[in-house]
Fold this protein.
Amino acid sequence: MAALLDKRLWIVSGKGGVGKSTIAAALALRSARAGRRTLVCEVNTQERISRLLGHEPVGPEVKQLEDNLWAVDVRPQEAMREYALMVLRFETLYKTVFENKVVRYFLRFIPSLQELVLLGKILFHAQEKRPDGKPLWDTIVMDAPATGHAITFLRVPQVLLQTLPPGPMTREAMKMRDLLEDPATTAAVLVSLPEDMPVNETLELHAALRDQVRVRTHAAVLNAAFPERFTEGDLEALVDQAELLRVARTHHDRAAQTVLAEMKLERNLHVPVYQVPRIFAPGFGRQAIEQVMGHLEQLVTGKAGA
């Protein structure tokens, strides 16, 4: 079983509402626990991961949450400045061009510019080096946008290479494309639910990543799964207890749906599918993330958990 720890850039995506931020938080925490310098990146959204881990929101600057774990919320305005400085090199030129009100007005109409600077900042972190030349970050976990937007987001380097003349932007786009397409560095983890629509969108996302972005799917996570607990015999034994029978039959049906969803994902994705059981708790925070992390042990390390 291939270990996710063998890769440095983990892209977590799925249909909106399937719990991809939960899975990204659990994966980042597990990476940090393995002693790896880990950066988890949210992309222009209301921060969830820092709070799920029991910390205050970090904002657009990289901040340490705990041992071996840092976080950042990558936002367009701040990413625009950082990325422009990376490409232009001179702050005076940046101020002349990008802080000009007229220029800023027209920048809003450049296709894919926002996605470029957001993705560019994340992939810049993936290329940062320590003084000894080793990567600054052992693991970068990208809590990517949901399904359709994720493809648009990750296709930006290819779009730029197809539309722009050679120059600084295309050189940067080529670096970004090569990093995303490198199977030794980058792996996608697709998150789904045991329901028809999320499963179908997961299959579509996998195909789009493969055909349009050339990012390899490493594994899928079937979140909020229901384990099999009640047999048909158990249901028959509860026939005279209407309320208990209703609860048991509901669980039985959802467990059957989980089995079908897992089979469909495995048959079509040709990658391992890991179940994370639905967690029933009054609040969803650090304790729940720790539980989810335990269910993802084999995905991260390639070895079965205790």
